[in-house]
TrEMBL record:
InterPro entries: 6-hairpin_glycosidase_sf (IPR008928), 6hp_glycosidase-like_sf (IPR012341), Bac_rhamnosid6H (IPR035396)
Top-level taxonomic group: Bacteria
Keyword Signal: yes
Keyword Signal among record annotations: yes
Residue span, Alpha-L-rhamnosidase six-hairpin glycosidase domain: 204-381
Keywords: Signal
GO biological process: carbohydrate metabolic process
Gene3D superfamilies named in the record: 1.50.10.10, Maltose phosphorylase, domain 3
Protein's recorded name: Alpha-L-rhamnosidase-like protein
Record organism: Mangrovibacterium diazotrophicum
Length: 593
């Protein structure tokens, strides 16, 4: 260094500074300065472009007005060019507007990319785009049978120019209808692709058994939640593109079973906490604040993130003290705010009241568990006192499977009683997509694993039989009578289940066919059939307790914070189960067959 001149030192320092600046500016183009960075919001999402898998319908069977539809099934480039070759062409005849319905193979979240070719007239030509979760939805105007642009634009017009490329739309859909607007208009289109926007994460968990329908149900539940893992964790990708805290619980249990730790969960929980500071209830619904506590408990048990849990201490303690004020001298909860379990029970006050009593017990049990970890002894005592009060009032089951399930899970009644008097009755009638997860859990607690497996096959399997690729906001097994599939034009004499069913806020085509709260079988099959039970937070100890029912074998993987646990169970001729596994060194596995 003694031989270096001042000029040499300046050159070295300048080079180092340039290198540092280049590293910073690699994140954004150099025209963005530090003030610009304060105005930049990044996204966790990736996107891919998907070519249609099939043509469902065209308005013209002659080939005169809708031509070369098969060209849309070719691989896409996203680039217009100067070619004058054959491309997809629509021409209107002055009498009617012509169009086409495309099928992209499965439900996605995103929009549409349209690439036009050479030879289009000016000024720009308009097309009408209708996105649909079912074929019927794409064939319907807004305002008819519940079809809506609420939450996401799925019916709109856009202008297409010559040799251009347009990205448009943001909704949940599988099908798209495109109609040419204008009496004598014509358009030449080189490509139409779906823009799939998703979180690019691996499926670390898996489930495979000798029943292919159960395998498909497990994966469909996983995919349903994956689509809703956008920049925040949504409930639906067409409608309910919102953060609903209660609806998160089944979704988070699915994430724990399939994806492991993902930042979308704490990010969404914090969003809700900041949006609804105490004494507000989450989403204005008192039960959803209780669900927030249970989500925090289960997220910590599976992921073991103590630093994140400590960040929740002040709010958690405040919420538990607030809840404790809503227990009367007889031990009955008297919560205010909107009182809601799920939609099918929303008009049954007795069922809601019984469910709320159970949820108070569940919330204080979860709160006590978390406060012990946080060394919050005063609040632990408050939780224990509240539990003792709540135990004094045990409501009757009010004739719904929802309140029976919650009462069993809370410990206020025995799971065997809930199963005998409600859950095992009437097959899958009176099940619901959201609370179906808790009905399955309560049946498992009663030891009726086969009954729960049968419910999964019949209830969630029925949606698959109707062409579903994601699970729905609501479903009633009676809808299967004379039902048409959602991936076809409705045959004469058949019922369009998307148009004709639904209730409350989800009538007709407003009904979401991709709702994360319906993913319960994925988490349930992992816990009770594959047998993965977390014993110590962070998966430090896992108990394998498989219940195969009528299955011959099951195998799969489970994501832990320390790596992947690989499991296989084989039923032997004497009915016993042989279990083998491979585990990360950091965890202990206990086998209980």
């Amino acid at each position: 260094m003694k031989n270096l001149k001042i000029k040499d030192i300046r050159i070295i320092v300048l080079a180092i500074l340039c290198l540092c600046v280049s590293v910073v500016k690699a994140q954004l183009p150099p025209v963005f300065d530090n003030q610009d960075l304060q105005r930049v919001r990044t996204s966790d999402l990736s996107q891919a472009f998907i070519v249609p898998q099939g043509i469902v319908w065209t308005s013209d069977s002659t080939g005169k007005f809708v031509q070369n539809t098969e060209m849309l099934l070719n691989p896409s480039t996203g680039q217009s060019d100067l070619s004058r070759g054959d491309v997809f062409t629509i021409k209107n005849d002055g009498v009617m507007q012509h169009g086409v319905v495309l099928d992209f193979g499965r439900e996605i979240q995103g929009g549409i990319e349209i690439v036009t070719s050479r030879g289009n007239p000016g000024p720009p030509v308009k097309v009408r785009i209708r996105l649909g979760e079912s074929v019927g939805e794409t064939m319907t105007d807004v305002g008819v049978n519940g079809a809506t642009n609420d939450h996401a634009m799925r019916d709109f017009e856009v202008a297409l120019t010559n040799m251009g490329r347009l990205e448009i739309g943001e909704s949940g859909f599988r099908f798209v209808r495109i109609d040419l607007v204008g009496a004598d208009a014509k358009i030449r289109i080189k490509e139409i692709s779906a823009i799939f926007r998703y979180r690019d994460i691996p499926y670390l968990g898996s489930f495979t058994c000798n029943d292919e329908k159960l395998n498909t149900i497990w994966m469909t539940g996983a995919y349903t939640v994956h689509l809703n893992m956008q920049n925040y964790l949504w409930d639906g990708i067409k409608r309910d593109r919102l953060v609903w805290v209660g609806d998160m619980h089944p979704e988070v249990m699915t994430i724990n079973s399939v994806f492991g730790h993902n930042d979308v969960v704490p990010k969404t929980l914090d969003f809700a906490k900041n949006q609804y500071p105490l004494p507000n209830w989450m989403n204005g619904i008192s039960s959803y604040s209780m669900w927030w506590i249970m989500v925090q408990r289960d997220w910590y048990n599976y992921q073991g993130d103590l630093s994140y849990l400590k960040e929740q201490k002040e709010y958690l303690v405040g919420l538990l003290h607030q809840l404790a004020k809503y227990i009367d001298e007889d031990g009955k909860e008297i919560l205010d705010g909107e009182r809601f379990l799920d939609w099918p029970t929303s008009e049954n006050k007795e069922a809601t009241d019984a469910g709320y009593q159970a949820m108070m017990m569940m919330a204080f049990n979860a709160g006590a568990e978390l406060c012990r970890i946080l060394d919050e002894t005063g609040t632990v005592a408050l939780c224990e006192q509240s539990i003792a009060k709540i135990e004094k009032y045990v409501p009757e089951m009010a004739g719904t499977k929802q309140d029976a399930a919650l009462l069993a899970i809370s410990g206020l009644i025995s799971p065997q009683l809930a199963n005998e008097k409600a859950l095992s009755l009437d097959g899958v009638h009176k099940m619901s997509t959201f609370y179906g997860y808790y009905m399955l859990t309560a049946r498992a607690m009663a030891g009726d694993y086969q009954g729960a497996i049968d419910n999964i096959r019949e209830y969630w399997g029925a949606m698959l039989d109707l062409g579903a690729t994601t699970f729905w906001e609501d479903f009633d097994i009676d809808w299967m009578t004379n039902a048409a599939r959602i991936d076809e034009l409705i045959p004469e004499g058949k019922i369009d289940v998307h148009a004709n069913y639904g209730d409350y806020c989800y009538v007709g085509y407003r009904h979401s066919l991709c709702h994360g709260w319906a993913s319960g079988p994925t988490a349930w099959l992992t816990q009770y059939v594959l047998g993965v039970n977390v014993v110590e937070p962070g998966c430090k100890v896992i108990k394998l307790s498989p219940h195969l029912g009528d299955l011959q074998w099951v195998k799969g993987t489970f994501p832990t914070p320390h790596g992947i646990l690989t499991i296989e169970h084989q039923k032997l001729p004497d009915g016993s189960v042989r279990t083998t596994y491979e585990k990360p060194d950091e965890i202990t596995v206990i086998v209980e067959n």
